Protein 1
Amino acid sequence: MKTYFRLLSFAKPIEKFAIPYVIATILSIIFGTLNLTLLVPLFETLMPTGGVNSSIITNTATSSLDITGQLRDFVNYSRNTNGIQLTLTYVCLAIVGSVLLSNIFRYLSQRYMEDLRVHTLLNLRKTVFNNVMDLHVGYFNNERKGDIISKVASDVQVVQFTVTNTLQVVFKEPLTLIFYVLVLLSISVKLTLFSLLVIPISAFIISKIVKRIKQQAKEAHESFAKMIGFLDEALGGIKIIKAFNGAERTKQKFHKENVIYSNLNRKMVRRQQLGSPVSEFLGVLMVAIIVWYGGNLIISHEPNALSTSQFIAYIALFSQVMRPAKALTDSFSGIHSGIAAGERVLDLIDTKAELVNKPDAVELAEFKKDLVLSNVSFSYGDKQVLKNINLIIEKGKTVALVGPSGGGKSTLMDLIPRFHDPLNGDIKIDGYNYKDLTIESIRAQMGTVNQESFLFNDTIFNNISFAKPDATQEEVIAAAKIANAHEFILNTEQGYQSFVGDRGNKLSGGQKQRICIARAVLANPPIMLLDEATSALDTESEKLVQEALNNLMQNRTSIVIAHRLSTIQQANLIVVIDKGEIVESGTHQELISHSGLYKRLIDMQTFND
């Protein structure tokens, strides 16, 4: 129940929808019950005077609560006063009016519930997505993307129907049941108490049937998440799959999980579907027993027996009692599935971001002096990646990070925009400790161009202006010119309004990288972070991109991870990192003269070239 009430909290302000829903539902139930109760005056009107039960039917209601008795009194009075034809007209008009009103209020009830359902889904999905966007970068290295997508898309959808349907079942169906039972009691207390035995028996049997549905639902949601993950990987790596003839293996991998998911769904649906025929059979069995028992009372002319019209109305009403009772029992299976999905969604919502602003964090207005790393260490779990890094990056200088692969260069680069916090040591900018500043103001001072050039499936213009959403056409074009991108953009089908495709797959590697550089230029940050921005390019593209990078780095503080060491020989400071430690630092000439790791790396590249 704790999980359910937490999920229900996303419906706030619930009273906006709940109050009109309650009013409309109550009126719908009242008129819906009246529809069947009006069968009594209808049959009383149509039955000829002096019928089978005329000798044992009283002409007055036993009490003010005897609804059917009151209606019979009205029919007898009207039939004697106005005649049978006019009485029949009155009864028919009453039935039409009651049906019309019950349907109007039922429509309004469903409309308010649908508004509540949409409102709940909106709030829940917004909360989940917002929390995902606020999580630290490291979280996504440990989680399957397909599982996150499944929770945001599929699980949230299951939850919204469970929350609102349960709310509907918990209020509407019991209330409907109460109204029907009250009318049945007004007709015959003895027969009603006898007939209601079916409800607890049915509920007990159904609860046994759906007992394992929650566990099966949880397993099904997790299996579906795996399939989404496989699909995402397959679409992202389609070229590799084709290149290594891996299509059949990938199909088999997906099919295997698909079979598991299908079997879980089959078992779950079988249990869900079993509840409906069981409750329906029990209901029909009870109706048959009531027809047999009540019919015998009428045929035997028992004292105080029901009239034929009352008995027909009773059977009609009791047959409707099974509908809300059946809805209540059927809802158990849906609740179990929804709670299982809800627990997965809440688990994602409850995942806290490791990096949050301190309550008294201040804004960094501008970068004035330097960026300092003091005794910085960092670990991924038990694996230490950086050890006691000490580095001063002065404003306006270019600092290059070089060294063997896996030495910790990219991790160090990730610490600078505060994607992670160091395990030990401090990072300061202009004397302010990173932890005393807002994360947003730190990142506002920086622009990034990565080795993997990422573009959104949008126009070239929107990809460049992502760094500055209010940028004008002239500003975007100016940034593209600095990045050596303007000419090839004009040669595309629709120029700056051309779509780049999924992850920019309509463009070459060099073109994508230059658009990423244009995006960074437009942001115009004082600090530029360049993570092997030319390593994946051919010679011609590399030349164009390197020229664009040189334009980008002018009059800026630049931190560069270098793939080709020849491109960073003019850097003010070259830092050599190996096995998480700074082993050398200095200018190109100083490091060459030391004949250390840097010189060996230079010699290796020269030899390979």
Protein 2
Amino acid sequence: MSVKLLIILASALYVVPIVLWIILRQLRKKSGVQEETITSWMNRQPGIKKENPKLNRFYQRSYVRSAQIPIFRGQVRRIRQRLAVISPYDELTIRKETMKITYSVLLIVVGLILALALFGRSVSVVLLGMIGCLVLNGMLIDLFVHRVENRLLKDFRDFLEDNRHQFQATRMADEAIYEAAQLSGHDMKLHGERMHGVLTAKDPDRSLAAYYEVAPNRYLKVFTGIARMIMEYGDKTTAKGSLYLNAISKFVQDINFDLLRRNRLSYQLNSLTVIALAPILLSFPLQRWAETYFPVMGEFYEGRIGLAAKLLLYAVAIAAYVLIRKLAETEESRYTPKSGGIRWEKKLYEYRPIRFVVDRFVPQKHTKAHYSLSRLIKESNSPLMIEWLTVRRLLLSLCAVLFVSGMFVSAHISQVERIWNSPTYLKGGLMLGRIDDAERREAEERTSFDRRIMQEIDAGKSGWEAEVRSLVRESAASALSDVQQNEMATRIVEKLSQADSEYLKWWEVLTAVAAGIGVYFVPLGIMQFQRRIRGMEMQNEVDQFRMLISILSQFDRMSVQNILEWMERFGIIFKPALQRCLLDYDSGSAAALRQLKTEAPFPSFVRMIERLENALERISIQEAFDDLEMEQEYYREQKKETMDRLIESKANWGRDIGFAPVMFMLGAYIIVPFLYVSFMQMKDLITQLGQI
């Protein structure tokens, strides 16, 4: 009955978008003037693709309605924030794109839940499918948004090629950018027109600073800044020709490297997320197959050991999925500082009782633990404060304690249910192979007989064992021998004793507490893993700094402070250290650079800062980095080698992590159950031989 109810609920959820569309369609009569205004405004915009006006109105009204529904409000806000970083959409366009992704994800997720409800025919399958759909929701959002970001990078590369040709014809950077924008796709056209507006504004520096705040990636930021410098100081002829054209060539080359890295990393790791989660779905048919051909294994799967193995399998699979997702992160929107919105951790921390409890767990200031935790938060690029992180850790720990305790209670209830209702097979024989219908009917008759006797027994009274034997003699057929009657009575007594012992034990409570303590440190482990993965990207960012400095060093009016400002604007991993260096630069440039080397002690980065130290007083910027042009071929090969090592390292990590759930499933659902069955059968066989 419960499965049918879940099917009905899943079907109802599946038609929610259709019903919503019908309702919104009926509401058009109440605001026809406003809808006509929206449609006419969209049709007047040259950059917006002409679509069905009814569909556009549906997206706009869906966005307004979904912002009022608590379930969808966070989903829509999360998608909007990521799209707003990637593309400079106007308000109506970003609402439409947000709802497109929202409805696509909703239909896929609800369709999957419906399929699990129809074919799984199990409450546990449907509930687990809902958990899987939550994971799938994040995957689909990343897929759609990641695709937009890659498309923008490719369009920007084509835009630079067109810009090269236009600049060679006009020798004017602003005109070349405008003409190249007209030849680009919709997203890149918006960015190109925004760049042209920056270069031709009355206050270009102010417009450039405003564009830096909304530019979706660092390539667009730096290219716009260089174009602004070309407009102000003019182009310069270097040993390799035009400075502007040479910068475009370096940008194209670096974007090609970045796209190649993304594609190779996606090829290596994308399938591993499916492999990591596959054991969760495969565990159900594997368990059903084992119970069909090896019936005794059902005792293992329904017992405490089987339940613990199942929970560990789910935990390992989800942990592997999260870690692989961290490995596969390439889009810059994951590394940019996260802001906007009110975090739920902050809301909880504002309550006085919760703050009192949390403050007891927060390390005291000016202690080593406080400094280490602060550094970990910064290096993992987490938006949390220490207090908010502690709120999250405590809440996860409490949920883990309640979940494990609930699973133990559920296991006891399931065990009692199995004792009362599961088919009772005789202990003789090895119980291998499929059970025929006659043997199953006999086992069900034994269970029915035992249940009838057990319902009349009160195990709390003294002498209930003798009462069981008396009822068995009265109810059993006269053809049964005394030995058979004694075996039946002994079996019923064992069942009642087992059912009476099914309660929450003290060691199970301790296990739940230990699980909570372990989960309390899980967020720190994930942050340390993310910090290590970011460490792998450091050399790649240093190589991009070299490309940037090789362009900037050609300008005559370039200083060390300007170089640091451009590096901070272009950087991701080293950005916090560069920001602190710029804040301290006016109070002492040499001391600020020394502190920068201390905060970011990566060897390649330190050598680059040492060159900037030389350029403070001794030599010029161009002389400090003159070998960048001379050794350009070497650095290109070094960058290729670094990229290959980075991808290979992440691929090895991903394979080890991705196949860990598969190996655990083979052990937990095949090897351990078979060993359990073998030992149990061996024990019964030895008992029978002893009786003989």
Protein 3
Amino acid sequence: MLRPSLSSAKPHPAITAFFQPIVDLRQGTIFGHEALIRGGAGIALPNPEAMLALAAAESRLTGFELHCVEAVLAQWGRLSKPGRLFVNMSADTLIEAMNAAGGTCWLERMLANYNIAVRDVTVELTEQCAAGDAEALRQAVKALHALGARIALDDFGEGHSNLRRWKELQPDFVKIDKLLTQGIANCPQNVALVRAIAGLGNAMGSELIAEGVENAKDLRVLRDLGIALGQGYLLGPPAPELLPALPEAVAAAIGDSRIAVMPHAAQASQPSVLRGLSVIQAPALSPQTPVDEVAAAFQKHPALHALAVVDDGTPVALINRQSFMNDYARLYFREVHGRRPCLAYGSNTPLVVEREENVESLLGILMSEDQRYLSEGFIVTEQKRYAGLGTGDQLVRAVTEARIEAARHANPLTSLPGNIPINIHIARLLDSGADFAACYADLNSFKVFNDHYGYWRGDEMILLLARLATQHADAHRDFVGHIGGDDFLMLFQSPDWYRRCAGLIAEFNRQAPGLYDEADRQSGGIEGEDRHGVVRFTPFATLAIGAVRMPPGMFRHAEDVASEAAIAKHDAKQAASGLTVREARPRA
């Protein structure tokens, strides 16, 4: 079988241009079109990647790319008022296209030949390969800008399209690779990465184009992250003819005032335990330091609870002040032991805490049977090298504060968003002018159930409510947050939110009796103390939801929305149906 070859077909094989729309995600209009090459009848390889690879193998990539660009410009020039054109070039091809000959560069001559306005052209710098001459590329981009054209950095996050190139070339547009955009509606990590790239775009002065937009859910997330432009099969596939306008469904999705619910990481990243811990800067002892010098160090630093023994930067022991000084005060101890090395007089199994230690590993230490670390204290290291000391009290406080902070982001029992994400989402709803319903869910008779069966059974009931609340919400329209205990806040943008709430109440009330013991199920409830300490028969736990419709513009702060929902919840707990709707009232 003969190997395919570009040169075997003809010196310049036939090239056809297809055009894919680039859409303004803010206005719902077509911003421009990217030209994509396709093989014509005179070439055996219709796949553009294969054609480029073959041209590179035959050492004619630059010439072939220029031929493709000319074919694109010729086809574009025949169109009537087509708008903005994005045309692909590799770094070396752009350098060649901007080389001046006879006072003008190749690209300028081609644009003049086909009567194309320079200001309508954007060169997409592809990731095929790095420029052979980085300085020549910078000069070519500078000349391109001087000409009046613009430049885009293609496939950021892939290949040679990186932050260094972004900083050096200062492109007008940066296209975010589909690796980061596809499936973003279900990937909190990609949301975080794209949000960071959006911040870079603002700092660098570049507009962002999201590639690979293939479904409405991803589209809404990208739009709400502030990505200005999008491209992908949902917005329009490559075609030989220009797309005159967006499909009605796509325009409706872009114009929808409802905001996207950003995917939430089930396991929030643990903050550094030592973020809020004051590390005690204390001198270190060497293993050969005499015992007398240890005593002198304690006398010089009366506030120190311990001293670390460090060998070449690595902690090897911890000498506790109280136990050491008790021994040092014994009769004849100084005379016998004063000149001996101190290593033998400390604990050779000290607790060593790395600055980046996470909460859960240290929580295990605090809950272990060995509690001597609380009195002895511990050694702090940074990248395994001695950094200072800490006390048991500081460790307990730091772990507690870190866990409280983590719970504010994600409830540790249900993994649902906690108070901080709830407030952030309410603020986004208010800022966008969305029409939504805030629904506060709470359990009736939960305290009696929890006290009677124990907190582990109480957790089962809370998990049941969390699971059912999630099932009755649209994951991309409705937000389910866990305030704490048996309190949940649901923020509905779904128009059938009332039906969803009623269904949630009915389903919870149907399943909750299954959490009771058989005898209690037969009795219809349990006897126990209520919130007032009175022993009485309490029927099965039920769900109450207080709802408030939030018309656009009535409130400015998340706290006001939460307060209105809490009042509605109080009313719902008194209602027989368990569901009440309250009219929102503006704050004074």
